Structure to design on (646 residues):
């Protein structure tokens, strides 16, 4: 199995992993809005997938829809229309009826109110003597209908002002929750409020992403705790007059008779919209008014409006314009079927521990040096986290946020992998530097061996290194097509060390002869080029990664005595078939041989050596290299003077 992580630097990686986990905990504390929004959508999807219920809901909605408004007339309706609606509903016996409609002021269409206003504005009186008094007040008509049909629950709305509201502490029996305190509660006019069995608030609070997921079940007010509309209807349905709360491991519970309702510490419930609104039976109010359709006997009836003109809608995970009445119907259905989501008080602590713990687990797992354990452990972490979320949601209706912790674990993995890659890269650079130093040491050792056997050459090797470096750099800067490698000058400098390495195989009688060589001896001397190539080729085969410098050294050693016209040795190749590095070396080697002093000849003046090389252009030497030499002749002269033989 391949090594994934360097065995070194464990302490640094573990420390970096711990610091990253702490940083991620800090981010979790402020809860990034984008991540929170994505987490909310993931919650909506999983709730819809795991907690969907296909059974019909016991709640029936009587909907004041657009068709009803078109048939009955302009909103708000006269209150006697609601009285007529109740008269129709009386034809069946229902568990409870709730109005998701607020009646905060008297009916302005009542005849007695119209008469008083007529008198105020025109100074005259309408003759209402022929109309019975009980028909002159629409609120009274509606109140009588409410009194005759019980239980009926009306709507109220909590209002907040800029002033600090003055609310009493929650009673001891409700002390497990601390709901928000409203400045005051706006309900129906007294004549209607007294005729109703009770009232419940209808406010809805959206999350930070604008999506409604929670609904107030209890609020506090200067008048004391007030139930939400759904809870008020449930209390009438179950004949519950008192509420109490208790704390459990999974969070507070509101106890209403036989129902145990999970709430959060703010007195709100987390709605389960997975059933969707098609679970509820929805009847158009105009069909109920005409008697064409009526809710089934024994059902819970909720009167509300989905008409676009009334703007009574909210945004949920299923719809951008979910009718507000559907929210209360869904809440009622959730309570009756025990499918409300739970939000334990420890969820934030679990959220942070999960985020930090997963990051720390990844840091520990990443200390392994093998791929398989790392992959298996990380896969196990992800699967266990997802499984915990699924089991908690399916079995206990508890949503355990998982996206942010898993995102932190993924970022930790990327961070530590990048850190490890950086460590390996630094180690590779060190290894490469050591290899290069070793290679240079080997080359210098081999060059020293050559020099020790041919001591009269003195600093010949050093001078030729600088000559080829100057030529290669010039050709590269002037755009020579074979000198595009930006490292050419450096490679040539090191490779030139071994251009005469083959001389170690030449007998001393020939190599160290003080006079001119005979033709036979010269033929022996010429073999040093081929012997040098063969020696370096064997070295290159033995090395696991010989590198470019060995290739260039092999080319130089074997071909630096070839000629442009093909009359050189050892192979007699010509033109560009001669390796480029060898063509550069040829000019440098000949120049140094001309200006240098040997035991068999005196040194030659620089100007004469330049003339000889110029005359060898396109015959002995590559024309481009000769042109570069002519441009650099002053530097060649300086190098020759700087590195004189002892």
């Amino acid at each position: 199995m391949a090594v994934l992580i360097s065995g070194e630097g464990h302490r640094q990686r573990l420390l970096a992993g711990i610091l990253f986990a702490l940083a991620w905990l800090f981010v979790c504390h402020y809860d990034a809005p984008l991540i929170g929004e994505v987490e909310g959508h993931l919650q909506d999807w999983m709730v819809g997938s795991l907690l969907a219920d296909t059974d019909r809901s016991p709640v029936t909605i009587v909907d004041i829809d657009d068709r009803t408004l078109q048939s009955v007339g302009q909103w708000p309706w006269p209150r006697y229309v609601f009285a007529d609606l109740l008269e129709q509903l009386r034809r069946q016996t229902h568990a409870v009826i709730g109005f998701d409609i607020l009646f905060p002021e008297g009916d302005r269409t009542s005849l007695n109110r119209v008469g008083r206003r007529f008198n105020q504005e025109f100074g005259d009186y309408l003759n209402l003597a022929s109309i019975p008094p009980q028909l002159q007040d629409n609120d009274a008509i509606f109140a009588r209908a409410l009194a005759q049909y019980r239980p009926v629950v009306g709507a109220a709305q909590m209002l907040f002002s800029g002033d600090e509201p003055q609310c009493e502490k929650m009673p001891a029996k409700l002390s497990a929750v601390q709901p928000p305190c409203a400045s005051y509660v706006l309900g129906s006019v007294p004549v209607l409020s007294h005729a109703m069995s009770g009232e419940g608030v209808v406010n809805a609070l959206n999350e930070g992403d604008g999506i409604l997921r929670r609904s107030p079940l209890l609020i506090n007010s200067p008048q004391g705790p007030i139930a939400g509309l759904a809870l008020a209807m449930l209390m009438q349905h179950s004949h519950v007059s008192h509420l109490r709360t208790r704390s459990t491991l999974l969070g507070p519970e509101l106890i209403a008779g036989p129902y145990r309702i999970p709430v959060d510490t703010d007195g709100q419930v987390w709605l389960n919209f997975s059933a969707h609104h098609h679970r509820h039976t929805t009847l158009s109010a105009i069909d109920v008014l005409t008697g064409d359709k009526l809710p089934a006997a024994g059902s819970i009836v909720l009167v509300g409006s989905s008409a676009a003109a009334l703007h009574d809608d909210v945004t949920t995970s299923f719809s951008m314009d979910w009718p507000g009445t559907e929210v209360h119907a869904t809440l009622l259905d959730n309570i009756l079927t025990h499918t409300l989501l739970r939000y334990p008080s420890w969820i934030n602590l679990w959220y942070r521990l999960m985020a930090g713990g997963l990051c720390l687990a990844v840091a520990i797992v990443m200390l392994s040096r093998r791929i398989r354990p790392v992959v298996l452990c990380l896969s196990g972490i992800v699967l266990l986290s997802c499984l915990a979320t699924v089991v908690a949601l399916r079995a206990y209706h508890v949503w355990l946020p998982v996206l942010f912790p898993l995102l932190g674990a993924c970022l930790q993995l990327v961070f530590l992998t990048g850190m490890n890659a950086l460590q390996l890269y630094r180690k590779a650079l060190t290894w490469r530097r050591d290899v290069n130093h070793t290679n240079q040491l080997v080359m210098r050792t081999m060059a020293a061996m050559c020099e020790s056997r041919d001591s009269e050459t003195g600093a010949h090797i050093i001078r030729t290194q600088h000559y080829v470096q100057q030529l290669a750099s010039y050709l590269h800067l002037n755009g020579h097509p074979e000198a595009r490698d930006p490292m050419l000058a450096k490679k040539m400098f090191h490779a030139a060390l071994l251009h005469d390495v083959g001389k170690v195989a030449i007998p001393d009688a020939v190599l160290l002869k003080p006079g001119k060589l005979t033709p036979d001896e010269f033929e022996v001397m010429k073999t040093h080029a081929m012997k040098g190539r063969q020696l370096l080729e064997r070295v290159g085969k033995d090395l696991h990664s010989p590198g470019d410098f060995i290739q260039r050294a092999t080319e130089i050693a074997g071909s630096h005595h070839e000629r442009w016209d093909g009359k050189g040795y050892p192979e007699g190749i010509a033109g560009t078939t001669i390796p480029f590095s060898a063509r550069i070396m040829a000019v440098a080697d000949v120049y140094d041989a001309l200006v240098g002093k040997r035991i068999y000849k005196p040194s030659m003046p620089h100007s004469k050596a330049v003339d000889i090389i110029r005359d060898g252009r396109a015959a002995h030497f590559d024309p481009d290299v000769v042109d570069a030499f002519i441009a650099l002749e002053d530097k060649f002269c300086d190098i020759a003077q700087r590195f004189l033989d002892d």
Remarks:
- The chain has 22 helices and 17 strands.
- The CA atoms of residues 32 and 404 lie 9 Å apart.
- The mean pLDDT is 82.
- The longest strand covers residues 152-159.
